[in-house]
Write a structure and sequence with these properties.
By secondary structure, the protein is of the alpha/beta class. The protein is built from 7 helices and 10 strands. Strand 3, helix 6 and strand 4 form a beta-alpha-beta unit.
Length: 191
């Protein structure tokens, strides 16, 4: 059965076609052959206010089990990509990052790899281990995310109390070209 995958990405990478290479890489023979459904909301999202956009993202994440973050040049600082990542982890999705700058864009050129967003997003573990607060690195310090509220853990943390854990603790990254994404995508998403 096909997995329902949510793709998070910077819109710049859609206009440059890099994001679509990954999103559409195996759809020529239909969804069941592709092995996943694309639950992204990018077309409609550009027109929304923040509260409406949050609701749109939250609804699109429903019934998904995997979130794939397509990592381009500016992905790591995009507010709504950060929101999508944190909400995905909170709901229990497998979260995977795929570097896409080695894919030739519409100008037939590649770019240097973008920064890993999982290094710039973290979870502050409360001193009692009961709660976590999403945080982002602002270049000098960790700052609380304003779009996502603190939440309680089903199983409290017993270590790293009062510390920030980067999301690299939970999310792996790959490079579409170097790691042969065309043939390995299904392994990455746990299909």
């Amino acid at each position: 059965m096909a997995k329902k995958v949510y793709f998070a990405f910077d819109y710049e990478d859609v206009s440059d076609f890099r994001a679509n290479v990954v999103r559409n890489h195996n759809f020529t023979e239909g969804v069941e052959k592709a092995g996943y459904f694309d639950a992204s909301v990018w077309e409609e999202a550009k027109k929304k206010e923040p509260s409406a956009l949050k609701k749109l993202i939250d609804n699109a994440l429903e019934n998904t089990s995997v979130t794939v973050v397509l990592i381009g040049t500016g992905t790591y600082v995009r507010r709504w990509v950060q929101y999508e990542i944190v909400k995905s982890l909170r709901r229990g999705n497998r979260v995977v990052g795929i570097h896409i700058n080695n894919i030739a864009g519409k100008d037939s050129k590649t770019k240097p790899l973008g920064k890993n967003p999982f290094e710039y997003i973290g979870l502050y573990i409360s001193p009692d281990g009961q709660n976590g607060s999403p945080v982002v690195w602002d270049g000098q310090k960790w700052a609380y995310m304003t779009d996502v509220e603190r939440y309680s853990f089903k199983t409290p943390f017993t270590s790293n109390l009062g510390k920030v854990l980067q999301l690299t603790q939970w999310a792996r990254t790959y490079d579409w070209i170097t790691n042969d994404g065309y043939n390995n995508f299904y392994n990455w998403i746990g299909a």
